[in-house]
Amino acid sequence: MKEVRTRFAPSPTGFMHLGGVRTALYNYLYAKKMGGKFILRIEDTDQERFVEGATEVIYDTLKGCGMDWDEGPDVGGDYGPYVQSERKDMYLPYAQELVEKGAAYYCFCTPEELDERRAAAEAKGEVFKYDKHCMNLSKEEVQEKLNAGVPYVIRLNCPTEGESAYDDVVFGHISFPNSDLDDMVLIKADGMPTYNFANVIDDHLMGITHVMRGMEYLSSTPKYNLLYNAFGWDIPEYVHLTTVMRDAQHKLSKRDGDAYYSDFIDKGYLKEALINYLALVGWNPGDDREFFTMDELVEAFDIHRLNNSPGIFDVTKLTWMNAQYIAKMDFEDYLKMATPWFDQVLAGKNMDYRRLAELMQGRTEVFNRIPEMVSFLAEMPEYELSLYFHKKMKCDENVAKENLALVLPVIEGIQEWTEANLHDTVMAAIAESGKKNGAVLWPLRIAISGLANTPGGAFEIAYLLGREETLRRLHAAMDKLG
Ligand code: GLU
Fold first, then answer.
1. Residue 160 CB contacts under 8 Å (≥ 6 apart), including other chains
2. Cα separation, 198 vs 84, whole angstroms
3. 186 CA → ligand 1 middle, Å
4. Which of 29, 88, 456, 473 stands 20 to 30 A from 140 (CA)?
5. Sign of CA dihedral 245, 258, 298, 6
6. At a CB cut-off of 8 Å and minimum separation 6, what does 33 contact?
């Protein structure tokens, strides 16, 4: 069997859309699974859209996720160059070959003429399709115009009757009426190839066996097949991928801040979790496994299990998965990643981050939620007295007042401010008083945190706050309780 060669062919726009990351992932997984090659090709023929630094964004994202390419602009390979703009001189001779074969033709219609005809068609309520106007030129007329330097494009000569069909791995048998095909431009007036042309030439020259890309290319593929056939080249396998959606009606959008890979990384999602989750948006392993390392994904991946219904990117599910990944992270890595988020609210507070991280790791769903969760350590929040009420703990305002009055002097007496000391001293006092633990510890924690839910209990929080701040908060609570 021929070696499998897949490619990821992004246009450098400056951002990596999640759908693009998933396309790259499936290409990577399939190549690795089949012992083949994963190729990175930068499609920058649209020079107007050139964005400085955009290729680096692509490199960093793929590398960061562990999708190393076997051939590409930076690592080279036998089929380079791997940047389309560096290949620009290769395309025209192929287009000219098609002209010779009658599969393509020169078109000298000016943009103004085309606009006029488009407007006229639209006025009649028709969709404008190039009308093959320049197909009527004789060979001599064409040559004259070329000699005179009249600007031209080269167009594909599409059939107008019958239909074009092909088989797609995900979507099955696809067919389009040829009357839908337009004589697309292959070579633009500036001499550059269009994406539509370059992708076919490049995929052929680079020996691509499987073209995996977004389903927005389903309807152009019959035109690409016309090109392959005109050249007499093998048509690759097509694997069109459904769109990654937020829900049944909505695409992920830049405006909602949920479209780009970096949106999620910046918020503090782990790349491992994001990749794991993305793999499952549009593919399933055929069993109920949900957690996969990259190697496990390679092992399990199968293009025949790609879904043909839109993949729903469920942020709630991703967040759940992210929390699982965070909980299992190496502690030192967690501490390192959490530190800047702690700093946002705790910088300069002389806080034991290591202890705080121990308390927070199992509760962190996404890193950007950390500041809000720990800000009570920086500043005592406002709270309602009703927070002291807790049925199960047998606590209310009066109980709180009485029990805080009991432990306040005990805590004031503690000199060596450790969690163990706090624990042992206060627990001994509670035991001696004959009170229920909950009826003392609940109000104690409210008094120093102002929150019903906190990372850690009363002793951990008191330790983190330090002696002075803990006592200050306890006195304030006593005042508040009257
Ligand atoms: N450059 C195209 C894009 O970014 C690639 C499409 C393809 O994979 O053929 O959409």
1. 178, 179, 181
2. 8
3. 16
4. 88
5. positive
6. 298, 299, 301, 302
Q: Residue 258 corresponds to which tokens in the numbers above?
A: 């949920």
What is the secondary structure of 37-50 as a DSSP string?
A: EEEE-B----GGG-
Task: Give the binding-site residues of ligand 1, using a 6 Å CB cut-off.
Answer: 9-11, 43, 195, 199, 213, 217
- 91 within 8 A of 198, measured Cβ to Cβ: yes
Cβ atoms of residues 366 and 266 within 8 Å: no
Residue nearest to atom 2 of ligand 1 (CA): 10
Instruction: Check pLDDT > 90 for residue 253.
Output: no
Q: Indicate whether this model's pTM tops 0.90.
A: yes
> In whole angstroms, how far apart are CA 169 and each of 196, 284, 308?
21, 15, 10
| Residue 363 DSSP symbol | T
How far is it, in rounded angstroms, from Cα 182 to Cα 110? 17
Q: Which residue in 101, 124, 251, 254 is the catalytic one? A: 254
The pLDDT, as a whole number, for residue 332 is: 98
Q: Tell me if residue 254 is catalytic.
A: yes
Give 400-423 pLDDT, tens digit per residue. 999 999 999 999 999 999 999 999
Please give the distance, rounded to the nearest whole angstrom, from the Cα atom of residue 10 to the centre of ligand 1: 5
